[in-house]
Amino acid sequence: MGEINTQKVSKGMRVAFANGDIGDTVAQFTFQFLIFTFYFTVVRLPVLLVTLAFVFWSIWNAINDPMIGYLSDRTKSRWGRRVPWMMGATIPLAIVMIMLFTPPIGLNSDLVNFFYLLIILIIYDTVFTSFNLNYNALFSEMFVEMEDRSKTGEIRITLTMIATILAFVLPTIIIEDLTNRYNRPETLTQYQITGIVAACIILISYFIILKWGVREPKEFSKDAETALSFTNTVKASFKNKSFLWFMFPALGTWMVIYILPALAPLHMTYAIGIDDSLLIGVLLLVMFVSAAASTPIWEKIRVKKGARMSGMIGIVVWAIPVLFFAFATSFEMALIIVIFEGIGLGGGIYFYDQCLAEIIDEDEITHGTRRSGIYYAVINFLIRISTIINFIVIGLVFSSTDWQTYEPNPGVDTIFALRLLIGVYPFIVLIFAFIGMYFYPIHGERLMENRKKLTELHEQKRSSLK
To answer: Mean pLDDT, the chain, as a whole number?
Structure first.
């Protein structure tokens, strides 16, 4: 895990690096897909207590994510700035994935289960951020050339989709009754087995990237010495107009990505009328296979039109089927809709890393120091905020329809609320995401000029090390 002297990275290293997305995605989407349903329907924790746990969690995020990003940018070690954080987070994250599904249900106390959820959320976020933030920071640092960045991005998206399939389909195979509709005693054990499987996938994925996929570029080896203070680092990030505009589509994208799996078991069971958990997994499988298959299309659009335009088109293509999905009334109808929803999802995911890397490039030109960590820290915080917003909305809507505590026979109002939450709400969010993407300023001549200046800057940094 030493340094490299060139910007070019071998194909094998690109594939090994992209393997990190398997562990990351399995951790993220297993969490997003199951955590709400598990604590609401199996643990039977009132929805307002679940929401409150996530609100307190967001307070921790406000401190945790920027601080880890700042410390990462200033880390000095023989392995570089990012790798030590990734190594230290690997085993703890695998353990936490199991602990997510082992609350002390036997004590029969909502208060105890609430505090257990809160503590596990805090630990999960700390170790997940430690790996994910530094992994993503390395993407913009290892792959500076547009060709390398683009090719690696393609592999990452493909492996992300494979991992997403694992995160969504495996639970539906292992867990027979996702929503605990029939109150089966084995459901708790099946959730715990899912956590163990997720932990094993994370360990294998992270071992591959740490063994064969990470090399910290030599030109950034002294950037830890020139990093700004914590206060100035945060201020500089929030003064970056390109980043401020990007925050709208970033927040909107993750709000929609996370609301879909969080409510999928409940929506598909009660609004669409699908009793078989495996069929729920099939619908999610088709959606993400469509997203993966559409990657070459979005890559061609990015090459011809740029990351900004591919993002705008992707958001539009995504928003329309999202709205239609809310009113699906059968498995067959939902199946057709999720194919188109998946294509839009592919575009919505593709622009994300490409635009953020462009922002970090421009920031390095301005400040002379590569500050990937703090930008991914802020984005990680936004991702957590997207979860908080979603759960607050879910909590308010469920409470207004008298579904504060889980009952397996919701009324008409609750079913209508599920349709609004899974379709109309994401559609509105994507409108704001499109507006932010429209005003994102790094494109055309400005992007070309940045590429030229960045090449010159990196040549100067490498020359200074000789």
So the answer is: 88
